[in-house]
Write a structure and sequence with these properties.
Elements: E1 4-6, H1 10-19, H2 29-38, H3 42-45, E2 49-59, E3 62-71, E4 76-78, E5 89-95, H4 97-107, H5 116-131, E6 135-137
Parallel strand pairs: 3-6
Antiparallel strand pairs: 1-5, 2-3, 2-5, 3-4
Length: about 140
């Protein structure tokens, strides 16, 4: 996958975060995205959205591993977990609805520590980040 940088659509992220607040928990992005996909059917309702795994900027060169939505129609992030973040995001992997469910079913986990596919994606992303003077914390 070619990694790319993007920005948060703060208005849309805030709207989703407020509308589906009972599904959003602090520091729980992987579960939040799962609940919004499965319980709220957001990927079915928003066909241009994909589940994204990547990083969100914490400081100038430090990124935290993160899960969010990516709107391929606008090229913007929809982040219900951190709706007001204005910093940079990097996308390391994108999943459409079917791919996301298949990936989750295969490993029975959405956490990069226990999901082999996501673990490999984040290891590659960490290598990429080091080569670009950044650090990604998983």
């Amino acid at each position: 996958m070619e990694y790319f940088e993007c920005k948060n659509n703060i208005v849309r992220s805030t709207e989703i975060s407020k509308r589906f607040s009972k599904y959003i928990k602090k520091h729980n992005c992987y579960r939040n995205i799962w609940d919004l996909v499965v319980s709220c059917r957001l990927l079915e309702k928003n066909r241009s959205w994909k589940v994204a795994y990547g990083g969100v900027q914490c400081t100038e060169n430090l990124f935290a591993a993160h899960a969010f939505f990516f709107d391929s129609a606008t090229g913007k992030v929809i982040d219900p977990t951190l709706p007001n973040v204005e910093d940079r995001y990097f996308v390391a992997a994108l999943y459409n609805h079917k791919e996301y469910l298949k990936m989750a079913e295969k490993s029975m986990s959405l956490d990069p520590d226990s999901n082999k596919e996501l673990n490999a994606i984040f290891k590659d992303f960490q290598e990429f980040s080091l080569n670009h003077n950044m650090i990604v914390i998983v």
